[in-house]
Every structure is written in structure tokens, then in C-alpha cells.
Amino acid sequence: MNIKQLAGEDVTEMDFNCEYTSNIPSLFKQLNISIAFTSYQAGRLMLVRSDGNELDVNYKSFLRPMGLTAYEGGITLGTYTQVINFQREDDMLVQIKQPLTPIEDDITAPRIKQHGKKQLTKSDISEEEIKIEQVLAGINLSETQKAQLDINMLEFKQEQANKMIPVDYRTDACFITRATHYTGMINIHDIQWGEEGLWAVNSSFSCLCTLDPDYSFVPRWQPYFISELKPEDRCHLNGMALKNGKPAYVTTFSKYDSPAMWRKGNKFDGTLMDVETNTILLDGLAMPHSPRWYNNKVYFCNSGHGLVCCYDPITKQTETITQLQGFTRGIDFFGPIMMVGLSKVRASDVTKPAPLKELYDETFSGVWLINLDETDNEKQIIGFIKFTGNVDQVYDIAVITDSHFPELIDPNHPRMRNHFSHSELQPIQNE
Fold first, then answer.
1. Confidence (pLDDT) at 136
2. Could you tell me which residue ranges the Conserved hypothetical protein CHP03032 domain spans (predicted)?
């Protein structure tokens, strides 16, 4: 039993085991790519890395990680109440491959000595342990719970100790936390950098928004059928595709204009919409997600049917690229290869469940690779990464280029205290 369980929360221990087709490690190494993807259910941002012989799936803990985008200079992640930017800083590779100096010996982070008390040392109780003791102070524990807590504390200390050791010697790129913007719980979904900065799907307020340090967010666009700007998730606006740096297409679960009404509908009426004209291009879709503009077409997931489709805005024709045995959600590309996220069909509070529930006795979660160059009606599946444990949900995917074995330093990592990036000295200019 862990602390969240002691506090009355239902927390399932995660099993991150996975299997993958044998061609994936060499493919990623040869292309010099890796992939990142999010699972809000597992509370993890995951990096799939390769040394050419095997995959290494690295997990970073975040509260409700959702929208994800990778660009030349970094990775941006949307979480429960924050948008976090990780800057690519490969000059730090030498530093992160060395042990981290203990805080007691780190001149950049001296400990404060309280009046009349000795200086804290390595053997003293950590700040984290003090916080834990404070949480548990008012909870009556059985002997069994106390024993389990001792085990959990040992695991916690080991986890902290592991963060002090060098990162994997195979690491070839470093992404370190550089900036955070607090949005509040806007139920952030897709995010992407454009001409005006970062664009985000704000599902709570049924709008597309940009970010400004003076506000939680700046609302910029709403579907024509949404009448008010309120945090009521009326139509479940979720997906967004940018074209030439501007939002061009979005997906919604419905056309409702009432609080959370999309959960209660008795038919599938999801849409693909044109942002510029604020018109519906396709409707009757089953829980659509992840529109992406690529090669002059709009690719999107008709998720409830396990389909990946593309819409041609010139011919106005829709083509089914492939059907997969899972809830399709999350798309990114590298050349002719399309990466598609798959999730298991889950129990939810929507009135009408996904049609996939009737199609398959079993659905899968993971990432599937599709070759778009195939000329057959059914595009070729190149390979897959499939979770065999209880990671059931994948939300978004991002391809990381020019790196087959990246490392990410999260905001709470102890390396954040003394891994610096700065410009040259900028002298004050006198008038």
C-alpha cells in the first residue's frame, strides 16, 4: 500500500512490460529517430529509444500528460495544469553522463543552517521524507500498513539514489526542463507550435487557444455551434492540425452546446472541421482524434472504429488508410512512415461505447508503424510496440529526429539544480 492508497485513493501499480517486432530497434537506429508518447492513464511520458539491438522504453512521471509535440529545438508537453517545454541541450551530454554531486557537497546549492542547530548532512532526514511524515501524522496505520510503508520508503530512497547516477552511456541527446506555463485544468489535448507561438486545444472551454504569461490562456477560436466561453467541455473539441503555421483543422466528438452533453449522446456525431471557414467537412464520425496535415492531406483517427483515415480537401474524398485492433489516437510521421497510437477500449461514462467493443474480443495498446508508400488498399504494417502489462491508454505521439537514444530531465529531477544553460555575458549598454 502506498501513500495515495492510505489517503483513500484507488491506485493501481503499473506494469510497463511491452513486446515489439524485431525490426524496430535497427530501424530506429538506422533512421536516427526515437519516439515519445503520453499515457494519461499511466501518468507517464515515455521515450522509446534504441541502440540498434534492442529497445529501451524510458518512463517519466507527470500528472495527466496529454498533448505532445517535438520540434528541432525541443519537446513540449501538456499536463494537468501546466505546459512544460524541454529544451534540447546536447552540450550537457558530458555532464549528465557523470554522477550528480550530492547536494551537501554542491557549492551551487548550499543548505541553510538554522540558528542553534547543526548543518544537515547526508544521514539526516530528507525534505521529502519530512513531507511524507507530515502527511501520515494523522493516519492510523496497522502493523501491516507500517511494514508496507517501510518498504515503500526504501523504494523511494532507492529511486532518489538512482537519480544521482550517470544516465545511460548510450544517450545521444539531452532534453532539459526550460520553461513552464500554468494554464489551470483546461483539459488540454493536442498542442503544436505555429507562427504565433504554441497553439493548444482547450477542451474545457471548447476552444483553441494560445498562451500568454499574463493569462491562463488566450481563447482564439470556437466551433460555430458553441455559444459561450465556459469551462463545460460541451462538444469535446480534442484534435488540431496546423497548416503553414496556423490552425487549419480540428476534430470534435459532437456538435452539442450543453455542458458535457457529448458524454450522454445516443449516436456518434463526431466531426472534422475547417478552422478558417468554421464549417464541418465530415460528420457522423465515432470519437475522432488527432488530425494532422501531411503531404497535402488531413490524416485523422476515426478512433471508435479503430480506423486511420485521410481527407483530401481538393477532391473532398475520404480514404481509409488502415484499420487496427484498438482505439486509434495519436499520429506523427517520419518520411513515408506513419506512427499511430493504439489504446484498449476502456470502460467509460459515455452513453454509447466505441463500436470496437463489438468488433473485437480483445484490443491492444501501443504504437503501430504504417508504410504510406504502399499502393495497396491496405497500407503495410511495418511493425509495432505493444504493451503487455496494464498500460492501456496512449494519447499522443511525437517523433524525435536526430536522436535514437534521448534522455529527458524532468522539472523535479535533482540535476535541475546545477545543470545550467546560459548565453555569453551581455554587458549593460549605457546611453
1. 61
2. 23-96, 153-408
